[in-house]
Design brief:
mainly alpha, MetI-like fold, 69% helix, 303 residues, two-stranded antiparallel ribbon, 2% strand
Length: 303
Amino acid sequence: MILPKGLKMNVKKLLYSKKIAPYLFLLPFVISFLIFNLYPIASSFIMSFQKLYGFNQASWIGLDNYKRLLNPSFFNAIKTTTIITLLNEIILVVIPLFIALCLNSRIAVAKNVFRSVFFIPTLASNVIAGIVFRVMFSDMPTGIANSILGVFSIEPQRFMMSYGWSIFLMLIVSLWRNTGLYMIYYLSGLQTIPSEIYEAATIDGCNEWNKLRYVTIPYMKPISVYIITLLIFEGYRTFGESYVFWKEFMPGDIGMTIVRYLYQEGFTYGDMGYGSAIGFALLVIILAVNAIQMKALGLSKED
């Protein structure tokens, strides 16, 4: 199709306009966001008020799906997920920071080797990591973990049949996979602290503990807040760690997390309306936890 010369000049002028060009470059992102993000969210929100009987049949049931959330399974899933999130907050803030401090030390040797060793597990998938740990913590007396316990004359444990051990299993997989990632975040933050500040602290007579307390930790607050925020999202969306240990059979919902509960109701049982309600309940929980976090860390203050 050949455009008239005048129209062609107007189109060219429009494309090269400083006012219009930025919006044209943003248009593909906006379109993809509307199609693949906003539309599914809106559709899922509407679905949470419906009872679905197939792909094209649905009936409006109001708040019935949200009323169904008041059941022991949902509250157990909230409890388990919250415990995992809180323990992740403690472990995956302290341990990666300690490793980063060690690797950032002047006396540390083979720094790049140890960074790679700690970071490599991050590249492994949840499924592969879960299968390995499932074999390690097998309930059989000949399992690796039970064999180690046997050396200390401890009776074999049924790891996947105990609530306490279920929390431990999901935490150990998360710790193994994510320690290296958060270590890298802390290392990047430590390397931005000017060396002159440490030199000034040394001149003032500060020991290593005071340097950590009054220099390192305050300067690392932005990185720590970022990691804590990530850990809230990671903790409340825990799914793979639960699925690899308990694919189908889960006695007493001992390893049930909120996202696993959503998957079970929405996809295993085909109740997409109730699954959508669980998803939006999870959204409200995460927003509430983040609001508490911002208040506790003083992020809501203007300064």
